[in-house]
């Protein structure tokens, strides 16, 4: 009697063999050219949102529908409830159900589960453990797709990689500048973290610019350095915007929360007030090598990026957002219980 | 090299050529007789609700599904966020995304966008500009359908026109009475405005009854007068209920907010308290010419209309609500990116 | 000219002839073996949730999708509003629409309506009337399916009966113990009530254990006694857990609210605090005859049931939850307007 093979989840993109990522991108391109060519008739994806979403939700649902399948959307706020993740405890608190049980049951109703977990937002030391998404992957009996946890956003990175390939051709030795931008509602560093590792593994030279106090997570940086070494490329962080963008082929704008002031809105706001200069404008872009602009959206115009750059010929933003649709179709084709 | 043709949106029904409205109604009737005859397989509509809805949401979603397509439902409260409409501003306020960007991105995921914008509810001078729905139409790259803005409700008017045609045959010179009714939760004047212009253009004699202080928007009244002149018919407003209903073939009950007390709930409530007599009952209906009753729903029974009239032989209410389904199918067939 | 036949609703399972319940279970088994064999292409179900749901919503929506149909989900909190049920009243209160009108209109858009009504939660004397679900059944022009009212949960009972049949074979003279369990968020007695009557009618010996103060509704108990008499079996209530489980083939754990402290959270909490011993553990289970465990979920682990029992070989929980999917497909096939 043979053991069941482990279920393939998509929690962090760099957990996949490099060849699998390339295959996903190739499949994405084929689907983009011929949208009708892949069918998931009768399959369904359960989408659980513990935080709001516009792009991810709309693109994921459209992807599934256009492949012939269905999505079941469950919103933690209006449709159900908080889930317990602690193992072995006496559940006499707020959560009426354990993620183990929710995952096991939903696995019997759908072919794949896509999860956007909540963020505690109080402590980076806690949130960085990504316990919720790990719990779903541990207990689900169908593939689990991470729709952005505290640390990782594999779906965004896939769309980013496809956009970079379409724009630059082979990525090896191409220069990517990731530049922190100012926003009153910074995201977690998930998009940045996933991009940093994905771009390095693809052989890009990656330079990250950010003000002091916005350093990325230590373990993420170690992983990035390790991956860069294997790929024979470089990752530099803590640069000024100008130094990072100099000679870059692509500038990726992103606002992320500082680890030191994580969970401290007052400190966070006062620090940010000192960094109003971190906006991408044409003068900065001219430091690059015919540099293009990317952004995972939503974008705060004229605060993160000027209208001139955002609406101009350098901008890949909408093409990048569209690629969410195509790459997520590829993910759904590859990650579902047959 | 040819320019892209402009995208056909459905924001106000009277922006369409008269022949196009007739064609939509003819198509609605054909679809009603043979529901299976029109297919939108693989197409999807993005429905964005910035305000609640029962009838519009259910009928629109059912329409798309029965045509073979899919709907993606996004609720501003639970699924995403407020959108910025100001052009060129520094976005450091509450809204994390500009409608320009949301519209551009969603246009890449779906074939048509249906929007129910929020109402400010504070100032009629501001709300009457219909800025949100205009912004969606300006920036979307697929057809935009107005699911009721502050000023206009084209989908309701289409269902109203179909119901009127089914009941009265040719509409020219038929008499329509629109009668204000009392409700603690009055709607905007959108349904009334759209009906006034649509019925006049169809050649109906339209009489509007309302208490003093509930006059319709000046520009709407000018447009109505202009349209009536072209159509060789008449529009009268400010009548008593009895004068309006006298000889009418159809009585259309509707509660709308007064412009003078718009955004002032205290004044609004005290004024309304003086107008408790504005309820449609059998005695009033007998002033008409075998008059039928219409209402866009939801209806407050025995406050706006007596049960006797609402549940009696005069009532077209449910047929009218059903026609939302058939007319919206026609709209979806005509307004989608091919 | 013939009268229209009455519409078949599913409000209480024991309103169906016994043969119909058996047929539903047989159909469920066939669908479970061959999921692709039954089609509801182009049909749609309107699902209205006036309370949250995870399992019911996901399994019902998946059931409809896998049969080729569509579901339209309406949430009372985010999508629409409270509905009036009083007949003939002047609707000048909070509810802007009568259930009569909502039911009539939605009946024109979909083939079947599935309703999870709100619970007042203040008075058992009021809630036990099940007025909301009765109103939907009275006014709808398509079949209405009860997705759990204050008194009854027919969909859960169907899944329970299928699970019992799969586990025990013929149910006659098999012993079922329903055991109250401690939870800070007890459910209504709907699951227990429906199971009690369904199991008795199937010929099972049913014993119910609960602390003093948690007696079931008098009329439910009368009906159960009456049904048991006809079926030639027995129903005993008010037992200790040990007495109920002794010799039982299946132990069904369920927490329900006491009638005496219904709507009184302070009294409810203080009573419950005295009953911490009401947890299912291995020692209790050993009193049965190779007893299996069932639970309608969500379950509070190590408060209602120990992990050891819940995750062990006795547990039928996940199979039971999966059977929601198969039995609801059978319900949708049988209860829809053709």
Classified by CATH, the class of the largest domain in chain A is Alpha Beta
Secondary-structure element pattern of chain A, one letter each: HEHEEEHEHHEHEHEHEHEHHEHH
Protein structure class of chain A? alpha/beta
CATH fourth-tier homologous superfamily of the largest domain in chain A: Aspartate/ornithine carbamoyltransferase
- Our Rg estimate of chain A from Cα atoms comes to 20 Å
Say what the CATH topology of the largest domain in chain A is: Rossmann fold
Number of strands of chain A: 11
Counting DSSP H or I runs of 4 or more residues, the number of helices of chain A is: 13
Side by side, the strands of the main sheet of chain A go 9-8-7-10-11
Question: Which percent band covers the strand fraction of chain A?
Answer: 5-15%
Please tell me the overall pLDDT of chain A. 94
Low-confidence stretches of chain A: none
Which pair has the most extensive contact? A-C, 28 and 32 residues
Please, could you describe this protein's structure?
Three copies of one chain form a homotrimer. Chain A is α/β, with parallel strands linked by helices and 338 residues long. Chain A folds into two domains: 13-152 and 323-334, Aspartate/ornithine carbamoyltransferase (Rossmann fold); 156-322, Rossmann fold (3-Layer(aba) Sandwich). The first copy, chain A, is built from 13 helices and eleven strands. Chain A has helices at residues 18-33, 55-66, 99-107, 124-127, 131-139, 154-168, 190-201, 218-231, 241-245, 265-273, 282-285, 307-310, 317-334, and strands spanning 44-49, 70-75, 83-84, 97-98, 112-116, 144-146, 175-180, 205-209, 235-239, 250-254, 292-295. In chain A, the strands form three sheets. A five-stranded parallel β-sheet of chain A has the order 9-8-7-10-11. In chain A, strands 2-1-5-6 form a four-stranded parallel β-sheet, with helices on both faces. A two-stranded parallel sheet of chain A has the order 3-4. In chain A, helix 3 (99-107) packs across helix 5 (131-139) and helix 7 runs parallel beside helix 8. The longest helix of chain A is centred in the C-terminal third of the chain and has 18 residues, at 317-334. The radius of gyration of chain A is 20 Å and the shape is globular. The mean pLDDT of chain A is 94.
């Amino acid at each position: 009697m043979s053991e069941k093979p482990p279920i393939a989840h998509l929690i962090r993109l760099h957990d996949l063999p490099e060849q699998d990522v390339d295959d996903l991108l190739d499949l994405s391109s084929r689907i983009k050219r011929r949208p009708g060519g892949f069918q998931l008739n009768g399959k369904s994806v359960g989408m659980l949102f513990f935080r709001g979403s516009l792009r991810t939700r709309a693109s994921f649902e459209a992807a599934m529908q256009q492949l012939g399948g269905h999505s079941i959307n469950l919103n933690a706020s209006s449709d159900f409830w908080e889930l317990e993740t602690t193992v072995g405890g006496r559940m006499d608190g707020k959560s009426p159900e354990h993620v183990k049980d929710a995952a096991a049951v939903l696995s019997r109703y759908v072919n794949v589960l896509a999860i956007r977990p909540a963020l505690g937002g109080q402590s980076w030391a806690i949130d960085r453990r990504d316990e919720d998404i790990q719990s779903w992957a541990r207990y689900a009996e169908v593939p689990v797709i991470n729709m952005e946890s505290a640390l990782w956003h594999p779906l965004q990175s896939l769309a980013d990689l496809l956009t970079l390939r379409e724009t630059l051709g082979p990525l090896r030795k191409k220069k990517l500048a990731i530049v922190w931008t100012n926003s009153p509602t910074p995201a977690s560093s998930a998009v940045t973290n996933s991009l940093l590792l994905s771009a390095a593994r693809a052989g890009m030279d990656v330079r990250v610019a950010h003000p002091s106090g916005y350093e990325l997570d230590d373990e993420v940086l170690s992983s990035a350095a390790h991956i860069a070494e294997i790929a024979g490329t470089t990752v530099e962080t803590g640069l000024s915007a100008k130094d990072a963008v100099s000679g870059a082929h692509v500038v990726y704008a992103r606002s992320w929360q500082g680890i030191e002031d994580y969970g401290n809105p007052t400190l966070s706001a006062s620090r940010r007030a000192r960094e109003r200069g971190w906006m991408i404008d044409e003068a900065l872009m001219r430091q690059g090598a015919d540099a293009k602009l990317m952004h995972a959206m939503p974008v705060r115009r004229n605060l993160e990026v000027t209208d001139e750059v955002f609406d101009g010929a350098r901008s890949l933003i909408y093409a990048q957002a569209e690629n969410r649709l195509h790459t997520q179709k590829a993910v759904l084709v590859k990650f579902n219980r047959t």
